Amino acid sequence: MKATLPIFWRHVITVLAGSFSAQALPLLAAPLITRLCTPAEMGAFSVWFGLVAIGAIGATLRLETAMILDHSPIAQRTCFAVVAYSCSVTALLVTLCAAVARAFDLPVARDMSWYALLAIGVGTWLTAYMQTTLAYATSRNEFGKAAKAKVWGAGTITLAQLALLLAGIGGAAALLAGHLVGLACGLLAAPRLLAPPVPRLRLLLDRAQRSYLRRHDAFWRFSLPSELLNGFVGQLPLFLIGARHGVLAAGLFALTRRVLAAPISLLAASVLEVFKRQSVHDYQTLGNCRDAYRYTFKALLLLGLGPSLALLLFSPALFAWIFGESWRAAGEMAQILAPLYFLNFIASPLSYVFYVAGKQKSELIWQIALFAMTLGVFLAPLTLEQSITSYAVGYSLLYLVYLRMSYRYSHNAMVPT
């Protein structure tokens, strides 16, 4: 492991450079965006974005993760064909469900325009296919090219949103349309940068594609439900805050989550892209990835400590100064959630151990416990502050259990799943 550490960190720096560029423009533009739209408009867009994020998880069947483990050219070509098929079917089903929900005047659909509802399917397809394309780059160690694709997509999303807001288009509609334009531009640029396999869509999956699904059934049987639960739980506070306290509170929470998630998107996700390859290599050659796990854990601990302390101590004043006084309440939420996101920063990259060790079932059980905790907290008759505090405490305790589980599995110990 020691001999590979310089390579490990060279890859991390490559991914980090791209991630920093991809995140820098949205973060720099955020103070302007928050002054061009209200917290309520941000809340409405965030609910739409949350639905797209959940749909994209289901659309890939989590097979983009399998691509990193099974990275022969034939297998990857088959994987792209299966994911393209799944994305298309999921997008059609999501669009149909959105239309039915609006026709029956269901609460979530009632507060969304027809344009937003019908755009959920399009956003789901674009997001899922882009995720699969980036996973293909990771499987081939093409971190630099993947970074360029991320920068292009993030930049076009931000510029499109700003252009539409400055043109006077309504806040939520401008954010939504700009996001779709950016996703489409990123996906158009990805083939030129990454040259992924081009799938041929058929009405039904062929024999090789069905065989691929059977061979990697652990991903759609266990990882997919686990990730869907995780994605749903991640969006559940936003949905329930919006339902119980209004879109204004949802908008404040959305900005809080966006700022707190920035270190995770920037640093932890960069480490994850490299840890994926390193952990797979160590597991296949040494029978465990203990050393890679320990080294990555220590690095994440040091990287996350400073930003988390700053947010814990100064969030309200920082939010008011950077985003405007109307967003000070978002900074108060950030103070409460800072310790939770510090644990999230550490646990997110290391969670890949569950896939490498084949312990997806254990992760699914943990996700069910997280779902039950989150639902119980936000359905309880508590104030907004009490709900967020209880959520932060419960989630943090579960993360400590999660880290302990992942560390045990990095040893490849014979423990039950």
Please provide a written account of the structure.
The chain is globular. The protein has helices spanning 5-36, 39-60, 63-69, 73-103, 107-110, 114-139, 143-166, 171-194, 207-215, 217-245, 247-286, 290-323, 328-350, 353-356, 360-379, 384-410. Helix content is 85%, strand content 0%. It starts with a helix and ends in a 7-residue tail after the last helix. With 417 residues, it is mainly α. The longest helix has 40 residues, at 247-286. Helix 10 (217-245) packs antiparallel against helix 11. The relative contact order is 0.12.
Mean pLDDT: 84
Q: Please state the oligomeric state of the protein chains shown.
A: single chain
What is Rg?
A: 21 Å
Amino- and carboxy-terminal Cα gap: 27 Å
Structural class: mainly alpha
Q: What's the shape?
A: globular
Q: What is the overall number of helices?
A: 16
Secondary structure tally: strands = 0
Main sheet: strands, sense, barrel:
none
